[in-house]
Amino acid sequence: MAGADAEDTGGRANRDNAGPCRPRTSAEDGHKAVPAAHLVSFLAFLADTGRFAALEESCPLAYTSPNAPTNGEFLQTWILAILHGCQRYAHVDAMRGGALDPLRIRPGRLLGEDALRRGMAAIAARGGGGWLSRHIAASVSPFLRDPWMLDIDIIRQPIFEPRKRGVRQRAGQRAGCRAHRYQTYFMSGTRLVLGGDVRPAIGHDHLAVAPELVRILDELPFQLRPRLIRGVCEPGCDRLLLALEARRQPYLVELNLTVNMASRMKTTVAAGESSDLREGGPGGEAVVRLPGWSRSRRVVVLHHTHTARPSPGDGMDVVVLVTNLEGGLPGLGELLHESAHAGDADEETRERWRWGGFATEDLTRCQVAMLGVALIHNWWILFLSAWGGPRT
């Protein structure tokens, strides 16, 4: 298979850290993504509804060797690894001969970790992100007819690897440790995933526009777009805000500020005529142009006591928001409160489904892995909706 012979150093390092014995999977610690009692029914659901067949038919893999596995065997191994709670490529070998070995969507063999790693590399080289994004869009399209909101969830996934010669270490960065920034877009209230972006966690790449989010908005008709986008962003997110404003997309973004920056912002907003922060009121607002922004925007400062959010205990008692909404301060506080509850549900989903697993140095391959987990997670939500069970 062309382009599938390259090994990644991150995956090899993860395999070396597994030890000489059989790798211990996260599922052995009670972290399976899907309960074992429903696993057989879910696999039958994928086969009977034709979702697995459609995924196999559109798979960009093209094996040429007569001894190579089929696309169905590759996808079957990948799906079972996700359902089993595998977080590394080295965990895949633990499924063979284990409890999941007899389970199949269709007759076929389970692949080893090397075959799965090479297949993922080939999919990433052939633009596999778009292939999975089309299936994710098909899984969420029935839920877009009603008004909905989009929540941005961000995690930092460390990648441990041997330190390379000639590469200078940044200040504050631990030796042998890098990280990726996983930015996932959830449909609020349903836990369905619309897509995600994987970017470097170190440096100024967070200033760039999120391409997957922009693609989602551009492909949706205007009447089916979210009525609000919520999330936490860095102060230098000007390009992302410009992209949302150019598409007339309402947003409510909490700025991730340090204690000193939040205190300065509170002082700036409190100096305005329409602010009651000095009298202990719920908050205030002002039109401010922060450093790095190309234009002025509405910045709102709210107390934690008026947003139903606990204080982090670091001396910062305010939340700094930037928005293009025209509502009053109590309405913005309620929206922020709902966003905090949605974030708790998103965090539970990430912990259960091992978001950020199969992480390597290759950003494209990491994004393909994340979109694959998101697609199986959406199918699981649809299975529970058809079965009538709780959405866990």
Walk me through what this model shows:
By secondary structure, this protein is an alpha+beta fold. It is 38% helix and 16% strand. It is built from 11 helices and 8 strands. It has an 8-stranded mixed β-sheet with strand order 3-2-1-4-5-8-7-6, sandwiched between helices. Strand 6 and strand 7 form a beta hairpin. The longest helix has 25 residues.
Sum up the structure in keywords.
392 residues, alpha+beta, eight-stranded mixed sheet, 11 helices, 16% strand, disordered N terminus
In angstroms, what is the radius of gyration?
23 Å
Mean pLDDT: 75
Order of helices and strands: HHHHHHEEEHEHEHEEEHH
Low-confidence stretches: 1-31, 166-176, 276-280, 306-316
Strand proportion: 15-25%
Amino-to-carboxy terminus distance = 38 Å
Spatial shape: elongated
Structural class: alpha+beta
Helix content: 25-40%
Oligomer: single chain
Number of helices: 11
Main beta sheet, described? 8 strands, mixed
How are strands sequenced across the largest beta sheet? 3-2-1-4-5-8-7-6
Number of strands: 8
Question: Any chance you could write out the topology, listing elements then pairs?
Answer:
Layout: H1 9-16, H2 36-48, H3 51-57, H4 71-84, H5 113-125, H6 128-140, E1 149-160, E2 177-187, E3 192-200, H7 211-219, E4 228-233, H8 238-246, E5 251-255, H9 259-270, E6 283-288, E7 297-303, E8 318-323, H10 329-353, H11 363-387
